[in-house]
Specification:
- By secondary structure, the chain is an alpha+beta fold.
- It has 2 domains: 82 residues, Alpha-Beta Plaits (2-Layer Sandwich); 50 residues, LysM domain (Membrane-bound Lytic Murein Transglycosylase D, Chain A).
- Helix content is 26%, strand content 25%.
- The protein has 4 helices and 6 strands.
- Strands 1-4-3-2 form a 4-stranded mixed β-sheet.
- Strand 2 and strand 3 form a beta hairpin.
- Helix 3 crosses helix 4.
């Protein structure tokens, strides 16, 4: 799966406020109901977050990486040690939100149908709490995209 790349200067401001490893772990575990990960371990080294444990699905693995990557100060997330029994290939498109973007506009670009913004919102609920509030530099997933 390799590294996920993110914009270092965008996202939640939780690093440098106590134990970085525990702060990132708590942010991911706050989504435990929708994205269970057993034995989650988080290691922050500089601007890179390393995740390990057992995710329920490949989808949950991606969601955990997105949560960790959408933290200010993080530019890379390595989820290679975050195991899953799900053999599903991860082929979703990842998109960096630009100034002026809305989920509707992004859905128009990728699906040619703005009303499909709800699919993008649902696929990113762990990093987008309100479909009307996205910010430049945020990395999101465009699910079920067919080029």
């Amino acid at each position: 799966m390799g590294f996920f790349d993110f914009i270092k200067d965008a996202g939640a401001k939780i690093l440098g406020k106590g134990d970085d490893n525990e702060n990132v772990k708590k942010l991911i575990e706050d989504e435990k109901e929708t994205m269970p990960i057993d034995d989650l371990d988080v290691r922050v080294e500089g601007d890179t977050v390393y995740l390990s444990g057992k995710a329920k699905s490949a989808d949950d693995k991606v969601k955990a990486a997105l949560i960790a990557g959408n933290i200010e100060g993080v530019s890379k997330v390595n989820a290679d040690d975050l195991e899953t029994d799900d053999a599903q290939a991860i082929e979703d498109l990842f998109y960096e939100v630009q100034k002026g973007d809305t989920l509707w506009r992004i859905a128009e670009i990728y699906y040619k149908d703005g009303s499909r913004y709800k699919e993008i919102f649902e696929a990113n609920r762990e990093v987008i709490k309100d479909p009307d509030k996205i910010y430049p530099g945020q990395m999101i997933r465009i699910p079920n995209f067919v080029a």
